Structure formats: C-alpha cells, structure tokens
Amino acid sequence: MKKIQPFALAAGFIIAASNSAQAEPLVVPPHTEVLGFHLGMSDCDAAAIDLSRSHREMSRTLSSEVPATYFLLNVNGNGFDVPGLERVSLICARSPDKLVHGAVLVFRPSATNDVLVALNSKYKRADRSDNLIVFKSPSGLINVEVFDSGGLRASYADTFLINDMAAMSSNIGSKL
Predict the structure, then answer these.
(1) Tell me: the pLDDT tens digits for 95-128?
(2) pLDDT band (50, 70, 90) for residue 159
(3) How many domains is the chain partitioned into structurally?
(4) What are the backbone dihedrals phi and psi of residue 173, each rounded to the nearest 5 degrees, phi first?
(5) Residue 85's domain spans which residues?
(6) Does residue 65 sit within a domain?
C-alpha cells in the first residue's frame, strides 16, 4: 500500500505533495477557499484526510479494499493562516484506471464563485455540465480535457462537488 506524503501548510499557502516523482507541487494562492483534491495512485487505495484539527496535524484512513481511488478533504479553517477561510465543501474524484496522475487540487477564491482546478501547478477554470467537466482558460473555453462518467477520455472520471457529508457518503456508496 502506498503512503501519502504529508501536506505542508504555510501562511497563506497550502502545498500539496504528490506521491508521483514527476508531478510538481501544487501551491494555492492566499485568500482562497479549498474545496478538495484528488491525488492519483497506482493501486486501489482510498483515503479520507482531515486537516481541520491544527496547522500541521492530519488524520488519515487508508484502505486497499475500495475499488477506486477517493481522496476527501475536510477543512474548517482552524489553524490555517488564510483570511476568510471557513468550512468548505468537498470534492470526490475517482480514477478508475488506477494510474498515478500526480495531483489535482480544486479551490475557490473567497471573493468570487469561480471554481478553479490546479493540475500540476497549471491553473484553469472549470465548469460542470451534467457529467462533463470542461476546463476553461480566462480567455474562454479550451479543450484541455473532458471528464466523462465512463472515463473513456478521462484521466479523472466522476468528478463532482459535494456540499455535505450525507451527500458525500451517498455518492460514494453509489459508485462502489
């Protein structure tokens, strides 16, 4: 079973370390609302990571019995030196091909409702329509990748935002 590298937390930034040697660290700008992340792994591990306890503590639950890769981030802002950061939503990302993709971090600037996706330190706007997620650039729509629920063209499939724990549990259960 692979181990997840710890997250490094600094004033105004959250740096996500990937278990892939080729992946770049992800740096979240200050004044952002963290929605969640997905970190691809090469086996069927699943993890629930809670970073809400303190600045450098986390609790992790790993299981090799779940036939998909799920990473759930739950942050309430306590211990984060990011002004205006409060309890946020969650994102659940599934990687059915089980490849190591590096890291995807989803966050939202506190001043706007735009959802941004960081893919190996490259930030793009993301929009959701039905089961599709299309990456956008500030200049408009670009065909970087389309994630469909069947994973036919997707590095990451079944990526969706979840607003509460009950919906999260329901959605995960329906996917397994």
Answers:
(1) 333 322 333 334 333 444 333 333 322 333 333 3
(2) very low
(3) 1
(4) -60, -35
(5) 8-175
(6) yes
